[in-house]
Amino acid sequence: xxxxxxxxxxxxxxxxxxxxxxxxxxxxxxxxxxxxxxxxxxxxxxxxxxxxxxxxxxxxxxxxxxxxxxxxxxxxxxxxxxxxxxxxxxxxxxxxxxxxxxxxxxxxxxxxxxxxxxxxxxxxxxxxxxxxxxxxxxxxxxxxxxxxxxxxxxxxxxxxxxxxxxxxxxxxxxxxxxxxx
Length: 181
Fold this sequence. Notes:
The chain has 181 residues and is an alpha+beta fold. 28% of the residues lie in helices and 43% in strands. The protein has a single domain, classed as Nuclear Transport Factor 2, Chain: A (Roll). It has a six-stranded mixed beta sheet. The longest helix has 22 residues, at 7-28. The two termini are 29 Å apart.
């Protein structure tokens, strides 16, 4: 049975949703300082067999892993949060796009879930622990001409501060890390 939530729980749920969205933005813009700020100093992350450890090592892992991709986009699809005081759990369903580099580039699209534990400190929510589960993977060839398709006619997104969002959304670009939540 699903019951209505009280206003405080709704506010916490909204803040947790902003936290998981901030994670996607930090990863896709390659903003490792913003990504690190979303975790408690003692936070941990587990990404399958490739990584399990603390925040500093996770940031180094993500930096290396993202270097394999020309472009990424991580979309939060649906969430479920259960809050108990200053701690919470969440299951975050994600659709993740990765395009590799080079003439033999690939589109790698995954469906995954982050099984999260959160903690509130000084009124802000942070990741305490993330555990990623991959539910499916689709890999297919990419071509340089993909960018010529009319559906791709908008300004091309890119990692880092050269992305249009830094120029056009100055309040969002200036609001990094836990200040977003």
